[in-house]
């Protein structure tokens, strides 16, 4: 059988352009409970980070908030975000074309977000059929990037060794998690002037580049096997 690595895609910022919507809703919700937060804070410091970690970090800086208020705030924030995802969300430029070109590969989504959010994002952006139920959420697996466990869990369920997986992620948090899992990692760096790709990862600046990079990886692997 021809070598075809398993492709593990992040969702927010990699497949769908949800991060500006998420950052705006976080800013509204967190500021309303006394935790000063701007949309630019998410995009600059916390992109790809689990929401509960962001709340904990903000409380360490600005003081504790009543847990009941935090729970109510999170429920309302996620409700507002879901409404916006259903009506405003678009795929990342080049993502539909890349997925179509790579359709012969096993592929899945690996995200820190809740599974309901992943499903809503893929459906509203028109990408759901590319993945069916091959969705791996940190909330379902009870482990989150930057811990490599989420990527390792996805690889195991997909039936592939980590070294036979290629992870595609736009966030430094996700890139580091996949590197720690022992995978080949492609960093979708859409902010190359402000963000440095971690050592060991392959940088692309557009999803339109992804099929070419994957093809090169496959060719290199086949050559290595033929010479061994």
UniProtKB/TrEMBL annotation:
SUPFAM superfamilies in UniProt: HAD-like
Cofactor: Mg(2+)
Regions crossing the membrane: none
Magnesium among keywords: yes
GO MF term set: hydrolase activity
Record carries keyword Magnesium: yes
Swiss-Prot/TrEMBL keywords: Hydrolase, Magnesium, Metal-binding
Gene3D superfamilies in the cross-refs: HAD superfamily/HAD-like, Putative phosphatase, domain 2
Similarity remark: Belongs to the HAD-like hydrolase superfamily. CbbY/CbbZ/Gph/YieH family.
Listed name of the protein: HAD-IA family hydrolase
Lineage: Bacteria, Pseudomonadati, Pseudomonadota, Gammaproteobacteria, Oceanospirillales
